[in-house]
UniProtKB/TrEMBL annotation:
The keyword Nucleotide-binding applies. It comes from Pseudofulvibacter geojedonensis. SUPFAM superfamilies: An anticodon-binding domain of class I aminoacyl-tRNA synthetases, Nucleotidylyl transferase. The keyword Nucleotide-binding applies. Catalyzes the attachment of glutamate to tRNA(Glu) in a two-step reaction: glutamate is first activated by ATP to form Glu-AMP and then transferred to the acceptor end of tRNA(Glu). CDD domains: GluRS_core. Residues 4-343 form the Glutamyl/glutaminyl-tRNA synthetase class Ib catalytic domain. Its main location: cytoplasm. This is Glutamate--tRNA ligase. ATP binds at residue 262. Belongs to the class-I aminoacyl-tRNA synthetase family. Glutamate--tRNA ligase type 1 subfamily.
Length: 498
C-alpha cells in the first residue's frame, strides 16, 4: 500500500454534527493504523451557506475529542491551501480542460426554462433528467457554434459547466465496505461542475483536491454514495487513478428509523454536537458541556457502525487504532443510543483519579467550605454511582449538609415503636467508640446488634436515614467515619427529636 493519506472535508455551515465527528474518527483511525496522514480540508465553495465561527468550531471539536488533524489550515503541509475558497484559481483550469476534450460543456439554460421542462415531464408521468436523452435539445454548447458560445460568455450571460455523462454503459464500482456496485450510466444526469460566479461545485472541487492532495482513501458518509459514479467518471475523464472509496453507514435516531438530527437531540434531551453551539436563537448543547469525557465520546462513536469482532467494549484511542479495520464496518445504519453513551461515560468517569474529580467538583461548587482532602474522600465513596461530575452533588450533599427532611416512605418503613430506645442505646455505643474507622464502627455496631438478637434492619435503616435523609448512599460505616463522631451523634439525635 502506498503512503496512506485521508482527509476529513467538512463544510463550515454550522456546528459539526456527531456524524461528522464519527467520520473524522474513522479517517483518523485508518490513517494511524497504516502510518498515514490525517488531513483537514475546509470545503467552503458555497459562500452563501458559510457560517462565521464554524471552521474554528470544527478544529476545536477535533482537538477536544483527541484526534486533531496533522495537516490542514494552520498546520500547513505541502498540499495547501486547505480551504477550497483559497484554491478557486485551480478549478477553472481543469473545467476548461474537460470542455476542450469534449467531456464537459457550457449550459446556458435558465432556471425558468429548466423548471418548465421539469413540469412538462411531471405532467407526462416522467422524471426530467438533464443527460444524453435531451441535452441536444437544450440551451448548451453542444448545439451552439463556438462563436455564439464565446459571445454569450463575453456579454456576461449566466452559464454552468456540465459533465457529459456516458451513455449505454454499466459502471462497475467498488466500495471498501459495500463491495461491488453496478450503475447504469443512462440514469445519471449531467451534473454541474462549475458556475459562472467562478466557483466550482462540490463534485469538481472534491475530486480535484483529493487528487492534488494525493488522497489515497476517501472515507465518507453514506449520503455521498449516489455521487460515487460521477466521481469515478471524473477520475476517468482526467485519466487519474481514483482513490479507494469507503462509505460509512448512517447514524440513526434512537428509534432506529431515519437519520439522527439536531431535532432528535432537542426532543430527547441529549447532545448531537461535540461542543455547544451558540446562536441568536439559543444554545445547542454539546457533549463537552453536558459533562461527557472526550475518551468516552470517542469510544462510543467508534462503535457506531464498527465492531472489533470481540466482546471488548472499552478501548483507548491507541487500542482503537490497533483494532480498526474497514472490513469490520457495517453496511447497515447504526442506532444512536443515548443510554449507551452514558454507560461509556460512566466507565471512563470512575477511571479518573479521585483528586481530578474532586478538583472539578470544587470548581462547580465554590460555596463548599470543606477542605480538599475531605472532598476527595467523599468523591472516592460516591464516584462509582455517578455518570457526570454534575451528579456528584445529589449523591453527596449529605456529607456537607445534615438532612433537615427525611424521605416519607423511608421514615414510615424504618421507624418502629422501639426505634427511639434502640437509637438512644446506639448513641451511647457510638459515643464510647475511640477508633472511628469504618472497620471498627462496623465491628462494634454489628456486634452490639447481634448481642441484642434483633434484626439488623431495625437499627441500620434508621441509622442510614438519620445520616442521609433517605435510603441511599455508600456504606453506612464509611459515611459515619468521614462525618466523624460528633456529627454522627448529632444526626442520630436530630432524627430522635424529629
Amino acid at each position: 500500500m502506498s503512503t496512506v493519506r485521508v482527509r476529513f472535508a467538512p463544510s463550515p455551515t454550522g456546528p459539526l454534527h456527531i456524524g461528522g465527528v464519527r467520520t473524522a474518527l474513522f479517517n483518523y483511525l485508518f490513517a494511524k493504523k497504516h502510518g498515514g496522514t490525517f488531513v483537514l480540508r475546509i470545503e467552503d465553495t458555497d459562500q452563501n451557506r458559510y457560517v462565521k465561527g464554524a471552521e474554528q468550531y470544527i478544529k476545536d471539536a477535533l482537538e477536544w475529542c483527541g484526534f486533531p488533524y496533522e495537516e490542514g489550515p494552520g498546520k500547513e503541509g505541502n498540499f495547501g491551501p486547505y480551504r477550497q475558497s483559497e484554491r478557486k484559481h485551480l478549478y477553472k483550469e481543469y473545467a476548461d480542460r474537460l470542455i476542450e476534450e469534449g467531456k464537459a460543456y457550457y449550459a446556458f439554460d435558465s432556471a425558468e426554462s429548466l423548471d418548465t421542462h421539469r413540469k412538462d415531464h411531471e405532467a407526462k408521468g416522467k422524471t426530467f433528467i438533464y443527460n444524453w436523452h435531451n441535452r441536444l435539445k437544450l440551451d448548451n454548447s453542444l448545439v451552439l457554434d463556438a462563436t455564439e458560445v464565446e459571445q454569450r460568455i463575453a456579454r456576461g450571460d449566466k452559464y454552468v459547466v456540465r459533465f457529459k455523462s456516458p451513455q449505454d454503459e454499466i459502471l462497475v464500482l467498488n466500495d471498501e465496505i459495500r463491495g461491488e456496485i453496478k450503475i447504469d450510466t443512462n440514469v445519471l444526469d449531467d451534473k454541474i461542475l462549475f458556475k459562472s460566479d467562478g466557483m466550482p461545485t462540490y463534485h469538481l472541487a472534491n475530486i480535484l483536491d483529493d487528487h492534488l492532495m494525493e488522497i489515497t482513501h476517501v472515507i465518507r458518509g453514506e449520503e455521498w454514495l449516489p455521487s460515487l459514479a460521477l466521481h469515478e467518471l471524473l477520475y476517468r475523464a482526467f485519466e487519474w487513478k481514483a482513490p479507494k472509496f469507503a462509505h460509512l453507514p448512517l447514524i440513526l435516531k434512537p428509534t432506529g428509523k431515519g437519520k439522527l438530527s439536531k431535532r432528535d437531540g432537542d426532543k430527547g434531551g441529549f447532545p448531537v454536537f461535540p461542543l455547544e453551539w451558540k446562536t441568536e436563537d439559543g444554545i445547542a448543547s454539546g457533549f463537552r458541556e453536558d459533562g461527557y469525557l472526550p475518551e468516552a465520546v470517542t469510544n462510543f462513536l467508534a462503535f457506531l457502525g464498527w465492531n472489533p469482532g470481540t466482546e471488548q467494549e472499552l478501548f483507548s484511542l491507541e487500542e482503537l487504532v490497533e483494532a480498526f479495520d474497514l472490513q469490520r464496518v457495517n453496511k447497515a445504519g447504526a442506532k444512536f443510543d443515548p443510554e449507551k453513551a452514558k454507560w461509556f461515560n460512566q466507565q471512563y468517569f470512575v477511571k479518573q483519579d479521585d483528586e481530578t474529580i474532586a478538583k472539578d467538583f470544587i470548581a462547580r461548587h465554590p460555596e463548599l467550605t470543606a477542605n480538599k482532602e475531605y472532598i476527595t474522600k467523599v468523591v472516592s465513596l460516591i464516584k462509582e454511582r455517578a455518570v457526570f461530575t454534575t451528579d456528584l452533588w445529589d449523591l453527596s450533599s449529605f456529607f456537607f449538609e445534615a438532612p433537615t427532611e427525611y424521605d416519607a416512605k423511608a421514615l414510615k418503613k424504618a421507624i418502629k415503636e422501639d426505634t427511639p430506645v434502640l437509637l438512644n442505646e446506639l448513641i451511647e455505643i457510638v459515643n464510647g467508640i475511640e477508633d472511628f474507622s469504618a472497620d471498627n464502627l462496623q465491628d462494634t455496631i454489628k456486634g452490639w446488634i447481634t448481642s441484642k438478637e434483633i434484626g439488623f434492619g431495625k437499627v441500620m435503616q434508621p441509622l442510614r436515614l438519620s445520616l442521609v435523609g433517605a435510603m441511599k448512599g455508600p456504606d453506612v460505616f464509611e459515611i459515619m467515619s468521614l462525618l466523624g463522631k460528633e456529627e454522627s451523634v448529632n444526626r442520630l439525635q436530630a432524627i430522635l427529636n424529629k
